[in-house]
Amino acid sequence: MPVALVTGSSRGIGAAVAERFAADGFDVVVNYRTSEDAAAETAAAVRDHGRGATVVQADVSDPDDAARLVDAGVEEFGRLDHVVNNAGIDQHVYTEDLDPGDFDRVMDVNVNSAFNVTKAALPHLRASDADPTPSVTNVSSILAYTGAPIEVHYAGSKGALLSVTKSHARDFAPDIRVNAVAPGHVETDMTADRSPEEREEELAGIPMGYYGRPEDIAEAVAYLRDARFVTGETLNVNGGELMR
Ligand code: NAP
């Protein structure tokens, strides 16, 4: 059976991706940093689809933890075919008040983690006989294009992730495809802090008229997993908020 590893799959988009991969016939390595119970729920949802799940606590911003995560998944299932670098954190602070340590932390979790996990997974992806070829999908953001003054480190991290995506796509072709999704506003814990006024303002800028569901992003990740001639690409999933 093909195997997928989804970082940050205890909640939100990552949990939806894990469940979508299970529905599509994949065993899934579920990862979390602190939300143990939520990760167990994701694993239960995977098993409800008749697929295997293993749950691994790891802070993917740490290279040793990332390697341990990959090793644990391969030990459980014997192979690894797809990686989704989804784990991410956000913080709303203007530059004047932004601590350099917080800047680094957001970069570590949102960018370095993708490098860490992809690097650790590389020998296993190269060994995969997946058809279409094995793949890595990085979860970026619409803010990679627009910037965001109140979260310069977050927007910067998501922009960097797109460059990492293209660099790895060139590096690993033709054996492994590397793509990104760039979600707009999605209904998860990350966007739960909006006031009704902020929400109304944001919704007015989304032609489709609603925040995306985590499943909408999972659908795009599944497409990229199966798109054999697509690599180095970013799929924008934002309800028309940004048309490029
Ligand atoms: P979320 O609901 O806050 O979930 C974040 C996930 O990342 C959780 O599973 C969390 O694990 C995990 N995580 C955080 N730091 C981690 C670390 N150091 N190591 C391992 N796991 C870690 O966020 P979300 O909205 O689903 O976001 C998922 C991805 O989509 C992120 O990369 C985010 O930037 C991106 N995105 C989201 C939106 C949006 O509107 N929601 C828009 C564009 C892009 P724990 O539960 O254990 O903390």
Task: Please specify the SSE layout and strand pairing.
Blueprint: E1 3-6, H1 12-23, E2 27-32, H2 36-48, E3 53-57, H3 63-77, E4 82-85, H4 100-127, E5 135-139, H5 143-146, H6 152-172, E6 177-183, H7 196-204, H8 214-226, E7 234-237
Parallel strand pairs: 1-2, 1-4, 2-3, 4-5, 5-6, 6-7
Helix pairs in contact: 1-2, 1-8, 3-4, 4-6
This protein binds NADP nicotinamide-adenine-dinucleotide phosphate.
NADP nicotinamide-adenine-dinucleotide phosphate binds near residues 7, 8, 10, 86 and 109.
Report what the structure shows:
- The protein has helices at 12-23, 36-48, 63-77, 100-127, 143-146, 152-172, 196-204, 214-226, and strands at 3-6, 27-32, 53-57, 82-85, 135-139, 177-183, 234-237.
- The chain has 244 residues and is an alpha/beta fold.
- The chain has one domain (3-243): Rossmann fold, CATH 3.40.50.720.
- Strands 3-2-1-4-5-6-7 form a seven-stranded parallel sheet, with helices on both faces.
- Helix 1 packs parallel to helix 2 and helix 1 packs across helix 8.
- The longest helix has 28 residues, at 100-127.
- It is globular.
- The model has no long low-confidence stretch (mean pLDDT 98).
Our Rg estimate from Cα atoms comes to 17 Å
Measured between the Cα atoms of the first and last residue, the distance is 38 Å
Low-confidence stretches: none
What small molecules does this complex bind? NADP nicotinamide-adenine-dinucleotide phosphate
Into how many domains do the coordinates divide? 1
Counting helices, strands and paired strands, the structural category is alpha/beta
Strand order of the largest sheet: 3-2-1-4-5-6-7
Fill in the CATH topology: Rossmann fold
Report on the biggest sheet: 7 strands, parallel
Provide the helix percentage. 40-55%
Overall shape: globular
**Number of helices, where a helix is a run of at least 4 consecutive DSSP H or I residues:** 8
Strand % is 5-15%
Mean residue pLDDT: 98
- CATH uppermost class: Alpha Beta
> What is the CATH superfamily label?
NAD(P)-binding Rossmann-like Domain
The appropriate CATH architecture is 3-Layer(aba) Sandwich
Total DSSP E strands = 7
Order of helices and strands: EHEHEHEHEHHEHHE
Which oligomeric form is depicted? Answer: single chain
